[in-house]
Amino acid sequence: MLLEINHVTKSFGGVVATNDVSVSVPEGKILSIIGPNGAGKTTLFNLITGAYMRTSGTITFNGVKIDTMKPYEIHALGVARTFQNIRLFKRMTVLENVMTGMHSRIKARDIESFIPGRSQKIEAEITEKSMEALKIVGLDGKYAEYGAALPYGQQRRLEIARALVSDPKLLLLDEPAAGMNINESAELLELIRWINAELKKTVIFIEHNMKVVMNVSDYIVVLDHGSKIAEGIPKEIRNNPVVIEAYLGTKKEGGNADA
């Protein structure tokens, strides 16, 4: 397994955000995490990436125990993410925003290489990789524009490019289709499939759009009130009465489920 989450609990004072959650993620698969708002989905991402320290349990990535590591150390191992709320640098261009995703790949001794004239070679390599990431998401023609000036759907794609530029083994996408229209969601679905199939990236994503979830996922994990209540292939989840009651309501497929 590429990622192993074993009996992980995270408490904030008296509030249990994740409760004894275990998830196994095989390499090369697309796994989605669904559940109502407050179910603990983003908390789980924060635990994987080191933004939060677990209260108990263990997290292992590619055979390495990462639950006591700092975020930059985990990123350097090959874990990259996007965020539920878009986090772009408003005063940076599209290209510059993507270049920031290379931060953990730059050795401390190479930091000076970013000073103009110190090392054109390293700067050229980073620029080339960043342009490649932009091409993947269809934004290479926008490289000189300010990231904050892009339409909403393109800003979402820019975040994915920034996550991809470090060449991660595991890509975490936090509600990538949030706020998108039907066409944008369909295009995003195809992009996620392409990233998984062609770039061989393992993908875990959080999503409320059940059409996207059911059409792109190899496997689905369902959280409710911090606990895992179900897991399985899309067909099993769609027809699981516990999931329908806890999250999907009476909707079994299509559209956005109520959050």
Word description of this protein:
With 259 residues, this protein is α/β, with parallel strands linked by helices. The chain has helices at 41-48, 71-77, 94-99, 120-136, 152-164, 182-198, 210-216, 234-238, 241-248; strands at 3-12, 15-25, 30-34, 56-61, 64-65, 79-81, 170-174, 202-206, 219-224, 227-232. A six-stranded mixed sheet has the order 6-7-8-3-9-10, with helices on both faces. A four-stranded antiparallel sheet has the order 2-1-4-5, with helices on one face. The longest helix has 17 residues, at 120-136.
Tell the overall outline.
globular
Residue fraction in strands: 15-25%
**Rounded average pLDDT:** 89
CATH-derived topology of the largest domain: Rossmann fold
Low-pLDDT stretches are 250-259
CATH superfamily label of the largest domain:
P-loop containing nucleotide triphosphate hydrolases
Structural class: alpha/beta
- At CATH level 2, the architecture of the largest domain is 3-Layer(aba) Sandwich
Distance between the termini: 31 Å
What is shown here, in short?
The chain has 259 residues and is of the alpha/beta class. Helices cover 34% and strands 23% of the residues.
Helix-strand blueprint:
Elements: E1 3-12, E2 15-25, E3 30-34, H1 41-48, E4 56-61, E5 64-65, H2 71-77, E6 79-81, H3 94-99, H4 120-136, H5 152-164, E7 170-174, H6 182-198, E8 202-206, H7 210-216, E9 219-224, E10 227-232, H8 234-238, H9 241-248
Parallel strand pairs: 3-8, 3-9, 6-7, 7-8
Antiparallel strand pairs: 1-2, 1-4, 4-5, 9-10
Helix pairs in contact: 4-5
